[in-house]
């Protein structure tokens, strides 16, 4: 079965601190993996994606994520958060097969950055 | 310019009525999707279309009917509206090309059913 688990529904960090948002997936093969961000009253925006190769991928706004096949994880990280990073973050996967149109999203992690 | 247009942005309907949510994408993508987001379920996949053909339907109710009149349009007709249908509905698109590529999302239509 395909699934994405984001174990932390809410995370609060201080501005300037480092951040890790966790994502675990379940899939029979190595899927395509994505992180999206949703700001209040907006649609989802792509932060970064992993297809293959280097397990550390860089995204927009200094976010990066590390894929681990052994741990079935794709954690999102940022070295120093800003108050504007407060948003909901979604991890998602998609099967690598052509003609597979199913994307599976996690429940999201709501990030609050405090002064 | 917005690449995915959803209309209207806000919609208020009465129980039992019918509404159509509009989605147009100008990214040249061949696949389009509908998702629903509410307080009960953060992001719920509803439908996927490719080249105007239904690929996947995860919506149990037949009250929700996607309609694709053009390859870059995927509207969502909802009949016999219920208060539980209140949610934000997001349209998305992607280009299926040799595997997978990321989805792009529209700004959403916030539906309130009274």
Using CB atoms under 8 Å apart, which protein chain pair has the greatest interface? Answer: A-B, 26 and 23 residues
**Which structural class best describes the helix and strand composition of chain B?**
mainly beta
Helix fraction of chain A, binned, reads under 10%
Q: Helix count of chain A?
A: 0
Oligomer: heterodimer
Largest sheet of chain B: 7 strands, mixed
Helix content of chain B: under 10%
Task: Give, in order, the helices and strands of chain B.
Answer: EEEEEEEEEEE
Strand composition percent of chain A: over 45%
Give the low-confidence spans of chain B: none
The first-to-last residue Cα distance of chain A is 41 Å
Let me know the number of strands of chain A: 12
- Rg of chain B computed from alpha carbons, rounded to a whole number of angstroms: 13 Å
Report the strand count of chain B: 11
Overall 3D geometry of chain A? globular
Shape of chain B: globular
What share of residues are in beta strands of chain B? over 45%
**Which H/E pattern describes the elements of chain A?**
EEEEEEEEEEEE
Average residue pLDDT of chain B: 91
Enumerate how many helices of chain B there are, as a single number. Answer: 0
